[in-house]
Design brief:
- With about 375 residues, this protein is α/β, with parallel strands linked by helices.
- It folds into two domains: about 200 residues, Rossmann fold; about 120 residues, Rossmann fold (3-Layer(aba) Sandwich).
- It has eleven helices and 14 strands.
- The strands form four sheets. It has a six-stranded mixed beta sheet with strand order 7-6-8-9-10-14.
- Helix 8 links the parallel strand 8 and strand 9.
- It is elongated and about 60 Å long.
- The N terminus is likely disordered.
Length: about 375
């Protein structure tokens, strides 16, 4: 009797051990992982990307998945820090991540991307736009415009609009802002255009009265920054009587929620996504997003949605049929498929193609906030 009881206890122990290892991806699923700021100052971006990605996965699974295999998606909260992104990466790999949409913000994604090189894990970030995120990494791709692209595009738009008296405010402590500004400055010099610049850093980003006062007489102020600071600058313009047009990049998506009716400055920004588009794919995405989340999507939600579909379509083109495929093997197959001349994704953020650099080619749009 004691021998039988011992055998039963051993069996129970073995079952418990296997159950305890249940953090791994469920057998028969493709596991897409990511990190992003789900809490903190940049949480709007992370939450939007997460929502867009989950919507895409739900649609794909409802349509039968890929070759009958369902997808799983999980985003770890990295609070927009490199340290938490690295920890999130390790946790996801321990759980069985096979492919990824990387991280949401550039600082985090550089950390994530660095670790991904060792494992040869394919990632396509929705929104980390700093050049260094994918530069020199053949396993790294992006859906959004790169920082240099946005700086160059901004000069092109300002020149086309005929602005002469131009100002700019950027964040010296943020790689996204500094990267776009550097490209903007270089292109302005190349075009023999002049401008006045002001800056701030992470320790001084609550009061912009000094910067606005210095640029008070400008016709337009270029803002390669995020929506929270842009909202404060818009309010400072009101206080200082500055009527300049405020023109930014995709980081301004969300600024509409930071201002009220007292702000009369015209605000617009470069983006690949227009929530009011009547084109079939973005309209279908907006309708589905509203139905699921009871709110309109922003560009980051659209980027997250497109990143998942880029992975799905590349895996489909590569005819991936093994749910247990190792990350490195999957990376090689997806890289080959996504950089093929015949591969194109018609996404919520436009028609996209990729080359071996990992950069995305698509057409920008200018969205007016007010």
């Amino acid at each position: 009797m004691k021998k039988v009881l011992s055998l039963l206890l051993v069996a129970l122990f073995v079952v418990t051990c296997f159950t305890g290892c249940g953090d791994k991806a469920t057998a028969g699923e493709f596991f897409i992982g990511a990190t992003g700021p789900l809490t903190g100052d940049a949480s709007s971006y992370g939450i939007s990307v997460n929502n867009g990605a989950l919507l895409a996965v739900a649609e794909i699974n409802a349509a039968g998945g890929l070759n009958g295999i369902q997808f799983k998606f999980e985003m770890k909260d990295d609070k927009a820090t490199a340290e938490d992104a690295a920890a999130g990466y390790d946790s996801l790999m321990d759980a069985g991540m096979q492919i990824s949409i990387g991280s949401v913000t550039s600082g985090s994604c550089k950390s994530f991307a660095s670790k991904s090189e060792t494992d040869n894990l394919f990632f396509i970030t929705p929104s980390a736009s700093e050049a260094a995120v994918i530069e020199g990494r053949d396993n790294g791709f992006r859906v959004c415009f790169g920082d240099p692209d946005q700086g160059t595009l901004a000069v092109k738009e300002l020149k086309a609009a005929g602005y002469q008296n131009i100002g700019a405010i950027y964040d010296t402590s943020d790689s996204y802002s500094s990267g776009i500004f550097a490209a903007f400055k270089a292109e302005m010099q190349a075009q023999n255009m002049t401008f006045k610049e002001q800056s701030f850093d992470n320790e001084n980003k609550k009061d912009f009265s000094t910067q606005v006062e210095a640029l008070k007489d400008c016709d337009v102020i270029f803002l390669p920054i995020y929506y929270t600071e842009a909202g404060l600058i818009a309010k400072a313009c009101v206080a200082k009587g500055c009527t300049a047009v405020l023109f930014g990049c995709d980081g301004l998506d969300g600024v509409a929620d930071q201002i009220d009716e007292t702000v009369t400055n015209k605000i617009s920004y470069i983006t690949p996504f227009d929530v009011n588009s009547t084109d079939a794919v973005p309209k279908a995405f907006v309708d589905a997003y509203k139905a699921k989340y009871n709110e309109s999507p922003d560009q980051f939600a659209a980027d997250g949605y497109d990143a998942i579909y880029a992975i799905y379509n590349a895996m489909k083109a590569a005819n991936i049929t093994d749910a247990d495929i190792e990350p490195s093997a999957l990376c090689e197959a997806v890289k080959k498929a996504i950089t093929d001349a015949s591969f194109k994704l018609d996404g919520a953020t436009g028609a996209m193609t990729w080359d071996a650099s990992g950069a995305c080619t698509k057409v920008p749009q200018i969205v007016a906030v007010n």
